[in-house]
Amino acid sequence: MPTFSAQHRTAVQTSIDVVNGVRTADLGLATPCAGWTLADLLAHMTAQHRGFAAAARGHGAEPDVWRTAPLVAAIAADPVGTYTAAAHDVLAAFAAPGVDHALFALPDFGPDVTVAGETAMGFHFVDYVAHGWDVAATLGTPFALPADVLAAVTPLVMAVPDGDFRDADTSPFARALPATDDEPLARLLRHLGRTPDWAPVPR
């Protein structure tokens, strides 16, 4: 298993804990992800869990496993249950023996993209540190990760390149913001194009 597997699990579990605070009335809230409501964000997060779980099991090349559209009704009806089930499933898939050496097909990342399992799990780790914070910021609730999780994800986050391609609608991250002397999570968020002090519009 990757050296960061325990920390990755903690990050995903933290996202589950945060999503547990979501209520149906919150689904229309704006998020730090421009143009996305909380419902959109949760559908994306759930679809990504499902896609990565399928990839870990050798089925990532099937486009349907990555689609968000089939999840819209499920998120609207039961956001917490739908998200939690997908999160636990991807953790189970990633825990399978030898999965870090398997090849993951990730068509959601581009045509014919196939990477080693450990690399794919690193992508997922980065995403769910960011998305866990996205949900917490949307709800106006605290978000904290243990020091070992931040230490493990930092080199993965800082390896995410910056550049003109981040301006594209298909880019998972906006352009990196100027680095400051903020605490570790804030530095990571800035590199991923997020404003650490983002706050929701008062309800």
From TrEMBL:
A molecular function GO annotation: metal ion binding
SUPFAM superfamilies: DinB/YfiT-like putative metalloenzymes (SSF109854)
Gene3D superfamilies the UniProt entry points to: dinb family like domain
Signal peptide positions (record): none
Stretches assigned to the Mycothiol-dependent maleylpyruvate isomerase metal-binding domain: 10-136
One Pfam family here: MDMPI_N
Domain of life, source organism: Bacteria
Protein's name according to its UniProt entry: TIGR03086 family metal-binding protein
Organism: Mycolicibacterium rufum
